[in-house]
């Protein structure tokens, strides 16, 4: 459980950092490289989060298999992962090609909010 909570905190931290980076109007090549590098950490931490979550679920499968909150949390987790990858990839490509700077701030803020909702659902599962 400790590793699962640690993974959640790390994913939240990376997401928050990415949201803050989205407010920058101009990017240097070095800043773009840093952004992509931090995004990779997010993938690793998300993987840790998923793996530790699976281990926790296996130990208490009878409790979780019928839980609507659990399955909603899993669906949101999958959606959040897809959204994060899409937003980071699009921002990086637009910066590399010099395309017009579209704002992805709303999308990344939505991703950050999704992570908070997922964490809250996790607390409800443990406390419920």
Would you give an account of this structure?
The chain has 128 residues and is mostly helical. The protein has one domain (2-127). Helices cover 85% and strands 0% of the residues. It contains five helices and no strands. It has helices spanning 2-22, 29-59, 61-64, 68-97, 105-127. The longest helix is centred in the middle third of the chain and has 31 residues, at 29-59. The protein is elongated. The two termini are 16 Å apart. The chain crosses the membrane at residues 6-23, 35-58, 70-88, 108-126. Keywords: Membrane, Transmembrane, Transmembrane helix.
Topology at a glance:
Blueprint: H1 2-22, H2 29-59, H3 61-64, H4 68-97, H5 105-127
Transmembrane segments: 6-23, 35-58, 70-88, 108-126
Keywords: Membrane, Transmembrane, Transmembrane helix
- The portion of residues assigned to helices is over 70%
Computed over alpha carbons, the radius of gyration is: 16 Å
Major β-sheet annotation: none
What is the number of beta strands? 0
- List the quaternary state of the chains: single chain
> How do the SSEs run, as a string of H and E?
HHHHH
Low-pLDDT ranges? none
Distance between the termini: 16 Å
Transmembrane segments: 6-23, 35-58, 70-88, 108-126
Keywords: Membrane, Transmembrane, Transmembrane helix
